[in-house]
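Teaching assistant here, posting this on the class forum so everyone can see the example we discussed in section. The complex has two components, and the goal was to see what a joint structure prediction looks like when all of them are supplied at once.
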Amino acid sequence: MYAYDELDRTLINERVSEFRDQVKRRLSGELTEDEFKILRLQNGVYLQLHAYMFRVAIPYGTLSSKQMRRFAHVARRYDRGYGHFTTRQNIQFNWIKLAELPDALAELADVGIHAMQTSGNNMRNVTSDQWAGVAPGEVEDPRIWSEILRQHTTLHPEFSFLPRKFKIAITASEHDRAAIKIHDIGLRLHKNADGETGFEVLVGGGLGRTPFIAKTIKAFVHGRDILSYVEAILRVYNQYGRRDNIYKARIKILVHELGIEKFAKEVDEEWKLMGDVGLTLDHSAIEEVRSRFSYPAYEKLPHMPDELKQAAADPLFERWRKNSVAPHKVQGYSIVTLSLKPVGGPPGDATADQMDAVADLADKYSFGEIRVGHEQNLALPHVAKRDLPQLWRALDRLGLATPNVNLVTDIIACPGLDYCSLANARSIPIAQELTRRFANHDTADMIGRLHINISGCINACGHHHVGHIGILGVEKNGEEFYQITIGGRADENAQMGVLIGPAVPYAEVADVIEDIVEAYLALRDRPEELFVDTVKRLGVEPFKERVYATR
Amino acid sequence: MTSPLEQKKIRITGPSVVTANRTWDGAVVYRTADRGWSTALADAAIVGTSDDARALLAEGVADDVGAVGAYIAPVEVKEGGVVKPGNLREHIRSKGLTIDLLPA
């Protein structure tokens, strides 16, 4: 966990006072909506179909049990008893009243939570691997660098009025769980030949109506130089990025139009021109941030405790353990993913009662720490293996032990037309129906790793382009239709999915997905060949034929 | 459902209402004939021509303290004068979520 100092607390509290005054002036009519909109957006407040939506940051996906309990309280006191975890390590409350928002913000500020960098044309919440600091083989904890970037960019005037929103993600593991290649800047932490820590810097990734995979502009930037290098990128973007057309304003368009070589050259020239602007991080500055991250006092525990051996006789426990429990860097401990994708439930939602219970379980079994991943699930990052059976029983009672992590029912979905003012079609009921169709865990296990991502409009909050199967809601003559893509992925081998054919109506989506999965099962050359690899090997044609031959 | 945020020209082809979100809490509201807002669609002033729609919208937009983001939305007037939302988006705004919040 990262410990806030007095400066952080003052900044957050001042922000609450400022927003309280802005809301008061808005409600009195002193501020018009046009004047107020940019202010509310800078505090994570959107206006959706039914109500205001309040988006709160969970920097690099790390939460304390105390903070989770405060989310539960906000959900109960100010909302309708639940919250929605998003694909960018935020939580959204869907029914909050503007008049009560300053009080909710103040209660969150008490536990070091804020809503800065969650909306508007600024640097957004810097995200990272939800297993940061605990994943075996990790170069080092990427959250140190996320925090350094967060501190530098929060309320930075140069980054507060960018041409468009700007997203950074950092990973330090070989397997990318932070989806860095679909971010404006993706940073891959690694060491050079001299053993020094630095970053491969990728730029220009993003989804939405013009999707691009980020490209590398520098193979290694030393850690001490990362702030100045990122600033050079942003200066080039600020100078050349388009402000005349919202659809062409993201940095990905600039990178595409200039070409990656020219863009990289511009950044390098800007970086040289900047010279020493006081952004070089000396060792003590990095260590100061590092020192404010606390790590658990792990016990020396056996690799295979008796409790685990005994529990292995229970097939339900074993199914869950194999699916939801991952290796930890410390012997005797595990990382446990808590599925927020129960059969028939809205993906990523958690009730206030569940949040409170997860906080209690984190205190009991995970040193009071919780993580949030971009796949819209939670994780307990430091669970002793001997505690896994007890934890599983507790999670099962809470509906948080569905053994479907990374399987066909672990669906990423945006809120869609049920909530969102931008959506063209619903996402959640499609996801719910699919989880019912594939509810049998044996079937899901047999299918293997398969990511379905659903977006209710081209803005792609559900990351449909990079789903193994992507589903995009569109409108045709007032009716909901859905385009299906296959073969996308968001990891270190990220790529966009390929459209398989004409959009299908709402009522046929689940049938179509079943057809695609059945085709895969018939086409894969062995059970271990993942869906996405079968698509890579065979292309979309066999799937297209299966879906459209009888339609 | 094309977002009304993209509504550029005001041209209606059937009965319509002006709807918005109430400023203090964001609730869905409809412009009424007595120059107020109501959370009930049944209370909404219904217009049938583009000129009337324009006028009703201008009146709603002018009340910036009462409601936010006013726009014109289609409705259907059923037998007996019962008013129903004219598309899925408005149905969801009027009736609420189409989903189960708890696993089912």
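For the discussion questions: Chain A touches chain B through 41 residues (CB under 8 Å). Chain A has four domains: 6-109, 142-291, 306-398, 412-548. Think about how each of these relates to the inputs above.
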